[in-house]
Amino acid sequence: QQEKEDLQGKLKLREHLSQTAGKSEATPAPSKNIDSQMKQLQCKLKNSNNEITRLLTTIKSLRKEVQEKEERIQELQAKISRLDKDISMKRHLIEDLRSRLKANQENEKTSNETLESLERKVKTLAEDCSNKKTSIDSLKRRLNVATKEKSQYEQMYHKAKEELEKKDLKLTSLERKMIETECAMTELESTASQQLRGLAKQSGQALETVQKKLLLTNDKVAEFMTFVKALTRELQHSIQELRTKIKQAKKMQEVRACKKGLSHESVQLAASILNVSTTDLEEILEVEDDEETAKTKMEFEKDKEWLQYIQKLLEAQCPFASHLMDAVLEKLNEKKKLVEEYSSLMKHTV
């Protein structure tokens, strides 16, 4: 735009000069020069206008690409958040199933403990019964031996008989209770086994679905990582190409400046002094200095650090989208500046 304004100012000046020249008595030769200069300036104006329109179209297309990439990144982030929610819900379901399994296992332990206590009671009762049978046998022996003392021990015998009958009734009731408890235990075991089988089936199906979804999410995340890595590598490669092009353009300008500054005869004289050909002398003039090589090394190190930083961001925990976006935008701005520099250098060379 500044060049355009300068050219317009020059055109106005030329018009003013032409008008003043027309009024004053001048020769026709300078007016021809002014017309030719006017035409040259108009051509430069047209070229600059065309270049400005081209740059505007490229900027618009780049903005559209950036907007599309931002929308794509937002969609991917929304998908990732949805998948994280699904995973958290499934984890809660798994934890509930585990707590239920633990409760059922604890119930089984308590039922097993009650069974063991009942078996111990049965053993103690059986021992009591056997002891009582031995006592009855001893009483019968005593009755056989003590027939003479029958009248004295008849009351004791009746009492013992009554006690035995009571104990027999208790034994029968205990046996009935044992049978009932065994039936209840078998029913409990069957119901518990059915419930455990159902829970195991449900938990197995849920785990399979969760594993499938986890695999899908892992594949999507891997695809996103490869896309980001390829994008950054391509961006870094394009920036390096632009830098090399800018360096080549600068070298061309320097060589042209040297050629303009030196005449053909002076170039031949310098080549004869150095005992080299003119082409070799041009190559010597084109050699990079130490500052340029140091600058290229610094740029290479910065690109390497930038790629390592993006790798760290991808390997870091969520959220890292804002930092990744900032890093990519920084590189895009650098590329934009390099494109502008290259276009300006190409204008000057033209």
UniProtKB/TrEMBL annotation:
Annotated region (Disordered), positions in chain: 1-39
Assigned GO CC terms: centriole; centrosome
Gene3D superfamilies: 1.10.287.1490
GO BP terms in the entry: centriole-centriole cohesion
InterPro entries: CNTLN
Domain of life: Eukaryota
Regions of compositional bias (Basic and acidic residues) in chain numbering: 1-17
Protein name: CNTLN protein
